[in-house]
Amino acid sequence: MSGRLGFFDPWRVPRRVAVQACAVVVGLGLSLSGMAQQPAAPPSPKPPTEQGLEQDPELTPQQAAVKSLAEGIQGKRDEVRVAAQEARDAQQAGDDARRVSALATQRAAEAALAQLQRHFESVAAEEDVQGFIAIENKPFDLLEETVTTLRPLLQQLKDATAGPREISNLDSQIELFMHRRDLAERARQKVDERLRDARFQTWADDLRAARRAWDGRLREASAQLTVATQQRAQRVGEQRPLWELVTEATNTFVRTRGLNLVIGLVAVAAVLFGMRLLHGLFRRVRPAKRGEITLYGRFGAVAWRLLTALLAVVALLLAFYAVSDWLLLLLTLVFLAGLGWTSLRMAPQFFEQVRLMLNLGSVREGERLVMNGIPWRVERLRFYTFLVNPKLTGGLLRLPIRDLIGLHSRPVGADEVWFPTSRGDWVIWKDGVRAQVVVQSPDLVQLQMLGGAQLTCRTEDFIGMVVCNLSNDFRVSATFGVDYAHQAISTTQIPTLMETVLRREISAIVGADNLVGLRVEFKAAAASSLDYTVLVDLRGGVARDYDRLQRAISRVLVETCNEQGWVIPFTQVTLHQAAASA
Q1: Going along 334-453, which residue ranges are E strands?
Q2: What is the dihedral of CA 82, 87, 88, 90, to 10 degrees?
Q3: Burial degree of 444 (CB within 10 A; 0-12, 13-18, 19+)
Q4: Under 8 Å between Cβ of 27 and 38
Q5: Residue 284's pLDDT is what?
Q6: Residue 193: per-residue pLDDT
Q7: CB 87, CB 37: distance < 8 Å
Q8: How high is the pLDDT of residue 404?
Q9: Region for 278 from its dihedrals, namely left if φ exceeds 0, alpha if ψ lies in -120 to 50, beta otherwise
Q10: pLDDT tens digits, one per residue of 69-128
Q11: Which of 43, 180, 438, 451 is 20 to 30 A off residue 237, Cα-Cα?
Q12: CA–CA separation, 549 vs 577, rounded Å?
C-alpha cells in the first residue's frame, strides 16, 4: 500500500470512482433484467447498492461498489439455482415447454452472473480484466473485421441505390405475376374444354375442383400483379427529377462530407506549411554553405520530405476521425492500402530513386549524361531534376528523377563540346548545301539557306549527321592549270604572281583582317596542263561568302592569265574545289 501511495496520482481517483459507479449501475441493470425474466423466483431484496448505502452511509465509493457487486453476484447465483431446480422439476413432470423456458432463464442468469463476476474482479483489483477476456474468448476474425470496416461504405452504396433497386425488384415481380396469371388462364381454359367434352364427364367433379383451384390461383396472381403494379407506380411517382437529386446530393455533400473534406485538406495544408516554415527557420539558423551539398544534407532532405508526407497523411486521418466521417476515413485508408501495395511492388525502383537523390547512383550531380542523343549537365538532383545544355535555346529540362533510372553520367572534361553548332553558325549540310543555324532547341534544329529557304530536323538527327561548321576558321581551295608552253616560269613567276593578285582581290572582298593565309603551290604536271593548288584560309565571320569566294578565285585566276597572256588548255579548264574546316 505504501508503494501505491508513493506514486499517488490525483487524477486517477475520480476516474476510478466513475468506473466503479458504472459497474454498479450495470450490475443493477442485469439483476433487474434477470428478475423480469424469472417470475417464479422469489422477489429479490432491495437493490444492494441502495441497501448497503442506507445501512452504512460512511462507505467509500470503492467499498460500496464491491459490496453491491458481491450482493448482486449472490442474487444471481440464487436465480441460477432456482432456474436449474425448475428445469429438473419440469423434466420429471414431463412438461417440455416449461423445461425449455427454465433452461433459457438459467442460461440468461448464468451469462449475467459471469458478467457481474468480471465487473467484481475489475473493481476489486482496480484493473480492467476485459482485455484478457477478449484475448481468451474472442479470436480475431479477418472476415468479420473486414465486413465491419466496410459496412459504412456498403451502407452508403445501398442507400444510394435503394430506389432503383426496389423498382427493379418490382419489375421482376410484375413479370413473374403476369406469367402466373397467363398460366392460370390457359389452365382454366383447358379445364373448361375438358368439362364440355362428353368423354371427360366421368371425371366432371374432379375437373370442377381443378377449375376452382385454378380460379383461386388466377385471382391470387391477378391480385399480386395489381398490388405490385400499384407499388411500382407509387415508387416511380415518389422519384424526383434527376436535377433535384443532384442538387440535393450536392448540397448534402457540401454541408457534410464537403465540409469534412475541406477540414482534412486544411489540416494537410497546415502541416505542409508548418514543415516548410520550420525548414526555412532551420535554414536561417544554420544556413547552407556554398558549393556541393554533402551526403548528410541530402539524406536530411529526403528524410524531411518523407516525414512531411507522413505527418500530412496522419493529419488527414485525424481530421476525418475528429469530425466522425467514417466514410472518408475508410476511403482514405483504402487508398493508402492500395498505395502501400503498389509501393511494395515498386520497392526496387523507389530504392534506386532514393540512391539518385542521395547522389549515390549512376547519375551524379554536376556530371554529363547523354539522353536521346543530346548531352546534358546534371544541374540538380531532387524529386524533380534539372538538366542543362548551355548551347540550346530553352536548354533546361525539368523531369522526375525516375526518368534518370537506367542512365549513366560521367565527369565533365575541360574542353567538352555541348553542341556542334551555335545559333548563327554557317554549316555545310549534306550534299554540299550551305545554310545558317537560326534555331537550335532540345527538340528541333532549323537551318536557313541563302535565298531564305529553311530546313528543319530533329535535334538528335542533326547531331548524328556529319556537319561541317564554317563559323570557325575555314579554308577555300581550288585547282587551276596552265599550258605546257609556260613551263619555264611554271614554278617561279606564275605561282608568285597568282598569289599576289589573289591576296589583293580576296582582301578587297572580305577585308585584310579576315584573311588568315593564302598560298598558291605547284601541284602536278598533268597530261595536258601544269596544275596549281590555291589554298585560302579565312575567319569564320565571312562564312556567309563561301560560295562567293570560290567564284572570286576562279575569276581572278582567269583574269590574271588573260593579262599575262598565259594559255589555259581547253581540255583542262576545270576547277576542283573542296572545303574543310581549319
Answers
A1: 368-371, 374-380, 384-388, 396-400, 409-410, 426-428, 434-440, 444-449
A2: 120
A3: middle
A4: no
A5: 77
A6: 84
A7: no
A8: 86
A9: alpha
A10: 788 888 888 888 888 888 888 888 888 888 888 888 888 888 888 888 877 777 766 665
A11: 180
A12: 11
DSSP string, 217-237: HHHHHHHHHHHHHHHHHHHHH
What amino acid occupies position 401?
A: I
Specify the amino acid at residue 88.
Answer: R
For residue 339, give the C-alpha cell. Answer: 498505395
What letter represents residue 315's amino acid? A
> Which set of grid coordinates corresponds to residue 253?
455533400
The pLDDT of residue 33 is above 80: no
469 has pLDDT over 80: yes
Q: How far apart are CA 425 and CA 547, in angstroms?
A: 16
The predicted-structure confidence for 294-333, as pLDDT tens digits, reads as follows: 666 667 777 787 888 889 999 998 988 888 877 788 888 8
CA dist 116 and 31 (Å) reads: 9
Q: Is the model's pTM score more than 0.85?
A: no
What residues have CB less than 8 Å from 481, skipping those under 6 apart?
A: 526, 529, 530, 531, 532, 568, 569, 572, 573, 574
The three cell numbers of residue 269 are 495544408
Helix (H/G/I), strand (E/B), else coil: 195: helix
Those residues whose C-beta lies under 8 Å from the C-beta of residue 41, and which sit 6 or more positions away, are 35, 78, 79, 82, 83
- In 239-325, which ranges are continuous DSSP H helix? 242-253, 259-285, 295-322
Rounded to 10°, the helix 142-160/162-196 angle is: 80
